[in-house]
Amino acid sequence: MKIAYLIQTYKNPEQIYRLVHIIKKSSPDSFVLVSHNFAASNLNVELLENLPDVKVVSAIGGRGNFALVQAYLEAIDWLLNHKIEFDWLINITGQDYPTQPLPEIEKFLAETTYDGFFDYFNVLSEKCTWGAKDGRDRYFYQYWWSGIELAKWQRGLLKPLRLFINNIQPWLRIDFSYGLIVGMRSLSTPFNENFLCYGGSYFKTISRNCVQYIHEFCQQHPELIDYYKKTRLPDESFIQTILINSGLFNFYPRNMRYIDWTNSRHGHPAILTIDYYPKLIRDDIYFARKFEIDRDSKILDKLDERIMQTTVQGSYSK
């Protein structure tokens, strides 16, 4: 039983090094693929690749657009093309952290009858956590990205205009969350009664069979990639839509992660501090986010103690 960890990163190199080290300490046989945006920060590749089964690749950064999904797909391609052996793929970011010894999740995955663990729902249904209107606005419109970033005061000033335009008619949408973008309602979408649009959290644990299916589907249907490249927040729909519509797999509708979205704005969850520790040690939570080592390193120290307390040491040493 071998897990591949895809870590998508862009900031806090010290925190990235720490994350990779704790994964390799707790799970020496795992494979770690770091997909890093070098335009945002530098990263000492040699320091990481000196560890066994750790590889660093370059990725283009971006929020709200297709960049995150593109990096995910490129990572899948890399793993399969390099014939990396793994049974499960877990994607996290450089601001995630394990919350318990990784042999625990390895044991859990070795025994499960599910093919994956992630949130999912029909974006046009009442189960959509964003609301069906937002689900439609995200994925049934094709957006133009202006590249213009608006300051907080500018977003506040223009908010009444945005709400007026978005609520008075069905054809045009304006959004400021990730820069100024303008969307037109798509006259033709890839979605129908046999291919529904699904959404959910970007963070997933999926079997190798699912990874292989995504890889082959994208090769056979590049038009879906082209469509999603013009949607808003495609990372919260693209993979779910492919996997759920396949009808081939059995998924558990939770991703086994802890994220605090209380008072969240523009996709920024709460920064987890030592005060959150009691909430992170539930048996059904294996990872949590977001952590900021400069804001509170004590929570990471506490998690390290828990992770290593019962981890069976392998051949790897820091």
Briefly say what this structure is.
With 318 residues, the protein is α/β, with parallel strands linked by helices.
Query: How many distinct beta strands?
Result: 15
The CATH homologous superfamily of the largest domain is called Spore Coat Polysaccharide Biosynthesis Protein SpsA, Chain A
Measured by DSSP, the beta-strand proportion falls in 15-25%
- How many helices does DSSP assign? 11
| Portion in helices | 25-40%
The radius of gyration is 20 Å
The end-to-end distance, rounded to whole angstroms, is: 23 Å
SSE pattern, N- to C-terminal: EHEHEHEEHEEHEHEEEEHHHEEHEH
Based on CA inertia axes, which overall geometry fits? globular
Unreliable residue stretches: 312-318
Largest sheet: 7 strands, mixed
CATH class of the largest domain: Alpha Beta
Q: What is the name of the CATH topology of the largest domain?
A: Spore Coat Polysaccharide Biosynthesis Protein SpsA, Chain A
Number of structurally distinct domains:
2
Average pLDDT figure: 95
